[in-house]
Fold this sequence. Notes:
This protein is of the alpha+beta class. It has three domains: 92 residues, CATH 2.40.50.140; 286 residues, 2-Layer Sandwich (BirA Bifunctional Protein, domain 2), CATH 3.30.930; 121 residues, 2-Layer Sandwich (Gyrase A, domain 2), CATH 3.30.1360.30. It is globular and about 90 Å long.
Amino acid sequence: MYRTIENGKLRKEHAGQNVELVGWVAKKRNLGSFIFIDLRDRSGIVQVMVKTDEISIPEIRNEYVIHVKGVVRIKDQPNPNLLTGEVEVEASEIILINKSATTPLIIADETDALEEVRLKYRYLDLRRPIMQKRFIARAQIVKSAHEYLDEHEFIEVETPILTKSTPGGARDFLVPSRNHPGSYYALPQSPQIYKQLLMIGGFERYYQIARCFRDEDLRADRQPDFTQIDIEMSFLSQDEIMKINEGLIAKIFKDTIGYEVELPLKRLSFNDAIAKYGSDKPDTRFEMLITDIKSIFSSNLGDYYNNNAYIQAIVVNNIAEATSRKKMDEASLIAKQHGLGGVAVLKYLDNELSGSLVKSMSEEEIKHLIEKLSLKNNDIVVIAADNRYNKVTSVLGALRLYYADALGLRKPGTFDFLWVKDFPLFERDEKGNLTSTHHPFTRPRDEDLPLLRSNPDAVIAQAYDLVINGQEVGGGSVRIYDQNVQQAIFEVLGMEEEDIRAKFGFFIDAFKYGTPPHGGIAYGLDRLTMILTDTDNIRDVIAFPKNLAGMSPMSGEPTKVDAIQLEELKISNTTNEKE
Length: 579
């Protein structure tokens, strides 16, 4: 037997007990007649005290694996920074289990290693206590989801990993078939079609901890392979679906971090989210709402802005004195990054408004602006204008977050939960063509069905996103269950019958056999774990992630493969030969 108790579980009530411990040496301090060792395992750290004049010990260095036998003692001076800080283990024997080379990174919550080094030596990075806490939290999230969904009579069903390539939100990862040369499987971007088929199959309530794959450009909160908590249910309205999911989120937060979520959650329409916050995933922990101020300039629009321009503003409190020319330029730089030429930044100090735009404004316009925005001393006003509404709102939405961070308004450990709903069913791409805002299986509101062909831009979807702290954590919708409506959606999207049959024929055929009303949601498990463990990097909550280039610094994939493998798959070796 290696251990009788885990290190991090020792407390003063264990005083006097003989114990056996194992773990890694986190730190060693040699004081001559005494050696103190911080011994770390998954549960935490405990101090081991060695009297060198009473026992002999092997050579010990950081990250050596050792087995300790000893007795638990009360410390003379407790360490309040450790859960085990009131006790230590006086060693009677120390056995060396394995040695370690000098590690290329510090194994502690705070490490000096760059991320690329952490990813290359991921197995060492995972030893860090903060990383282990994140994965313990992730496991608890999954456990809570299982418990809640099982209690609510959901059935866990696995869906295929090797699937058919169908249009989705990103490029598919393709897998060549050896038995069918020239044909390919696709890795699933989500189990969307399969979970709808399970509803047609009569399961009524399904869930799965599902692996998903999308070949898209990476960023801090995106990976090529990721995990969803995937849910689907039949014979429930949108409100009922949302209510069940609110209970799930409340249980996850309670079980994982002891946080009580106040139910029901707030709800906000897509249009209001954009108009007030400049984002369809707003962080509403602070106000700083967007205000339409076009009416203030209505009589002199040509003097300042295009007559067709949208003119909107946000007010940032208590920052005017600290806003330098450089800070104003930073605001315009953010605007340029979001597609606008810049913004106007005005200061309100000592009952006076200043800024380059003010020089051209009339006294009446200045007065109306101060009144409309209820300006107080030390406020600034940030004004954005453009003919494109979405550009104006997105710029001010980005600046909202920029100033909130500057003022510390997004405090760690605080949570804001919000449903955003009533999304448009369609959106326009850069060429002006209609595309699905979510996916082509989302059901329109019943009252909007007559508009599908006559005015598709006005059709509202029965779709909903769960937003926490300004991040979309889950997204779902009520699905189309009527084959005529599904056919109409495909036609509005400009899909030809031949194309529809080739890509969705099996799915459309299933609709003929008594499809129930159904809907569901998928949560990003990685993103949810990020929020619950207070990190903004998705790679912190995935055991073996890829870097921003989509590669693994640890194991080296993607890599070239042997020519014989390609020959078996009937794939040309041209690319390998050229390189």
